[in-house]
Every structure is written in C-alpha cells, then in structure tokens.
Structures
1.
Amino acid sequence: MSGIPSEDLVDQVMAVAHLQPAASVVVIGHHTLPLLLALMRRGCTCVRSLRPGVASPDGEAADLAWIVDVANENELYEALQAARRRTGTSGRVIIADRLVLRPAGTLHPVR
C-alpha cells in the first residue's frame, strides 16, 4: 500500500491510534496478509482479517478496526459497518489512504 513497507505502515497506524503493543486489531479489506503478519510481529495479541461482503464467523471486539483496501463504495459501507460493530464505543477505526476507493475497473496494485 502506497509504497510504504508493511512494518512501517503498522508502526504509523499504531502510533496514530495510540495502541498498546498487545492490542486486538481487525484489518478489513483485500490483500491484508502483510499487515496481519506485521501486526503479529509487533505483539498484537489478537489479529484477524475480514473481507467486505463475506460473513465473519466471530464477533469479537477489537481495539482497532483498520480498513485498508476496498474496491468500491458498497465495500466501504460494509467495512465501516463491520468496523463499528467490532470497535463499539471505545475502539478506533482507521481508513487507509488513497487505496480505499479505486476507480471502477482499476486492478489491484502490484505489491
């Protein structure tokens, strides 16, 4: 995403969200594996990935919901709903930069 290595991006998001290293994080979107691995390496105790439009088997609360790569407004809407369900009133929601909404028909960037 945006050319920043996953490790650096995770450090930035954790600093902005004021998260403790043992935070519970849900990453919502496509192509989330590098971020999940980076979060685990940073010590996050509970990390999971959700894809927009796909049912989730659990509903565990999270300290942070990070929306990283959605294809259109419908996916963004679904991701925001899932994020609010996961974070409740005390968690945080962060939406990634320019890749949140790609123009229709645009291929996923090469990573």
2.
Amino acid sequence: MISLIIPILGAFTLYPVPNTWGMVRTINPSFRTHKVTVSVPASDPVGQLITVTATPLHFLHPVYQFWVDYPGGSYESNGRYQSNPQFSFPASTPGNFTVQVFARESNAPVNENATQRAEFEVSSAPATVDSVIPSASQILLTANQPIVRSGQPITLSATSNAPLPTGYALQIVDTSTGKILNQTMINNHLSATTIQQGTQVFHAQIISSGGQILTQSNPMPMTWSTNPIGTYGGHDNTLGQSVSLKYPSTATINQSVTITAIPYFFQSPVYQYWLLPPNGSYVSSGSFSSNSTYTFTPNQPGSWQVMVYARESTAPSNETPTQQAIYEAKSQTYDVNVQE
C-alpha cells in the first residue's frame, strides 16, 4: 500500500492511498444502493484550476475524500473527509490528471480497518482531465511602433492568454539570430526593447526548462528604415507638404519645455516628435497623433535636439521605407540649450 503525508491544519497526517483506487464500489444498506459519481471537465489549460464535483445517490449526509493521480504517477488527496462536494487543484503541468472520489455518511467511523471500510465507503469510477498548453494563436506578439527608423528603439510585447505552467518560460526571441531578448517564468506578459538596422524577425514562445518549445506566436518581421532620425536638414514629402517646429532656444533643467509643430499644406496632419538628450539615445513621443504640441522635461544640462515628423491622418501606417517618403515630411533638427 502506498502512503502519503498530507499537511492538515499545520500538522502532518498519514493518509494511505485507498487500496480500492481505480475500482467502483457501492454498498446496499436497507436494500438501497449507495454510490457516488464524479464529474470533471474534458480539458483545462495548464496553469488553471481544475474543479471536480461529486454526486451522491441515497446518502443522507455524505462526506467526501478526493484523490488525484498526477501525470508521472504521484497521488494527492484533499485531506480529511469533508461535506463540500467540490474540489479544485491546479493543472500544474501538461498531461492527464485522473480523479476518483470516495464517499461515506458523516456519522460513519473514520478509523476502521480495511475490512470494515467496505461497510461504510463507496467510490466512483476514475475520471480523467486533459491539461493542455494553449495553442500558438493564443500568444500575441505586438510592437509599439508601426514605423521603425535606424537608431530608433522598438518595444515588443508578448502576452499569453493563460498562466505559465510550472517550470516553463515565456520568451521573446530574435529569430534572425536566435538571441533571447527577454524571458519570464512568473508572468504571462513580457516586453523587450531592441535597436537594430535592416530586417529582423521576432517571435514569442513558451518553452520548457529542457528546451522543448510548447507553443509559438506568429512571426513578426520588422524592417528598419534607412532614413536616419537625426539629420539636421528637414524634407518635404512627395506631395510638397512640409512641417517646421516652434521651440525655445534655451531652457532650464527640470523645467518643462513645450515645442509646437507648424504644418504647411496639410489637411489633417498627425505628428511624431523626437528628442535626443546629450550623450543619450533618441526618444519618441510614441505613435503619430493629432497633438500639435509636445511637452518634455529635460533632466540634464546640455544641448537637446528636437524634431518632428508629420503626415496626413489618412496615410497608411505600415508602408515600406521606400513608400515612407511619399507621405512623410520632417522638420529640421533644432537645438534647445538646457542650463542648470
């Protein structure tokens, strides 16, 4: 007989795995068959709770003890017999979980020997729940910018619609090089920032500690434009539309600075602002928006470069770098001298 030590109310109690495991048992006091069945979901995602329910027949005051046979052959019980007909346990790993419930009247003795047990106890047929990994379509990989320029950082975000199974990691991977940009074994959401030129392909995946890939997102190709951000000269788009920038030539550290876009020949312009701190990296205002002003707070002295891109709000936002020049105009790059 196999025995397990189960913690109950801070103490450890020895509970033997019933020697009737896997068998269906009934009893017939007063010629009325007492029995119990257990209902389980057909499948549940890894990381979710599996809830099973016992249904008694001809009992007055039934109590239950649930047993679970985990993938790999370890057993777990809910502990002492209790009146709650439901029991929940985590689907901690992929595979089949086999559940069986034992039932008796609440006033039946609890310390009987195996022979006496047959007089008081019934058991259900075993039932199996399949714990499954979410499919690839359930991992979503997104980018925070539809257009990426040389020298511009891009932030990728991966989200799984289910908690991670125990011992598995969510990763964002540069498919072009195989480099892992970021990973987590705790959360079902993850982000990573990278700067690159040329073309790259990224994907997100859930992977076991042994290196087995359980599921992947759809690949996300990103093409960086060859047009640099910080050229001092501005340019019109092919329609002759242009944009300039109103800005203060001097500012004070830790005091807000507001810059204003001035469009020419646009009907419904949207803007994206860029900053280059002293000895820093380019920072964007985010996606194109209709805000004609942008406010930032310089946190160090020196020369801060500022510029703005403009396009019509109706222009496509996922064009190739070659098509970009058709829709997009850029202001000159200006310097704001920040003093202490």
